[in-house]
Amino acid sequence: MNLILLGGPGAGKGTQAKKLIDKYQVPQISTGDILRAAVKEGTEMGKKAKEYMDAGKLVPDEVVIGIIKDRLAQPDCKKGFILDGFPRTVPQAEALDKVLVGLKTGIDHVVSIDVDEEALVVRLTGRRTCKNAACGQMFHIKFTPSKKEGVCDKCGGELYQRDDDNEATVRNRLKTYNDATAPLIG
């Protein structure tokens, strides 16, 4: 099964993808995760991506499409995949069609997760993540707080708020989503 999950930032695409991974045993391909890894590693692409991500803007299509094409060609995608956060624009969807034709496959289903914008702001600005890369446990200051403020329950690591989870950037990300990604639903 090849699936696309659409929805604004913080809508729950990653959460739902994890449940689908367990059920169908196919990989989740999250452009956000791939790009954040490149930023953390300090790669040239990561440095370029960071400038866009920190401003709440979309990373240029040519960078994202190249990453996706390489990832979909990996052996673990042969029995299916879940695209989380891609495509984000109509041109990306058109480019994905071309990539899939080249790989002799297609998309079976698209699921759009719709969440109220103010709820998304609360979700994203309250997220906290363990700095320990091996852990990466996520918390929320309101919905799933850690037992001790700022400390991961799982490993004892320090919790932090992602640079792009401040309210101004979140609102800009939502505007970008509404302008660029929402047309994909049609």
Question: Could you explain the architecture of this structure?
Answer:
The protein has 186 residues and is α/β, with parallel strands linked by helices. The strands form 2 sheets. A 4-stranded parallel β-sheet has the order 2-3-1-4, sandwiched between helices. The protein has a 3-stranded antiparallel β-sheet with strand order 6-5-7. The chain is built from 7 helices and 7 strands. The chain has helices at 13-24, 31-41, 44-54, 61-72, 90-102, 117-125, 167-181, and strands at residues 2-7, 28-30, 81-84, 109-113, 127-130, 138-140, 159-160. It has a domain at 2-115: 3-Layer(aba) Sandwich (Rossmann fold). The longest helix is centred in the C-terminal third of the chain and has 15 residues, at 167-181. Strand 5 (127-130) and strand 6 form a beta hairpin. Helix 4 runs parallel beside helix 5 (90-102). It is globular.
Could you list some keywords that capture this structure?
Rossmann fold, 7 helices, alpha/beta, globular, three-stranded antiparallel beta sheet, four-stranded parallel beta sheet
Q: What is the spatial order of strands in the main beta sheet?
A: 2-3-1-4
In total, the number of strands is 7
What characteristic shape results from the CA principal axes? globular
Q: For this entry, what is the oligomeric state of its chains?
A: single chain
Determine the fraction of residues in helical runs and give it as a percent range: 40-55%
| N- and C-termini, Cα separation | 22 Å
Unreliable spans are: none
Major sheet details:
4 strands, parallel
Rounded to an integer in angstroms, the radius of gyration calculated over CA atoms is 17 Å
CATH-scheme architecture of the domain at 2-115? 3-Layer(aba) Sandwich
- Classified in CATH, the superfamily of the domain at 2-115 is P-loop containing nucleotide triphosphate hydrolases
What string, H for helix and E for strand, traces the elements in order? EHEHHHEHEHEEEH
CATH class of the domain at 2-115: Alpha Beta
Strand content: 5-15%
Number of helices: 7
Structural class: alpha/beta
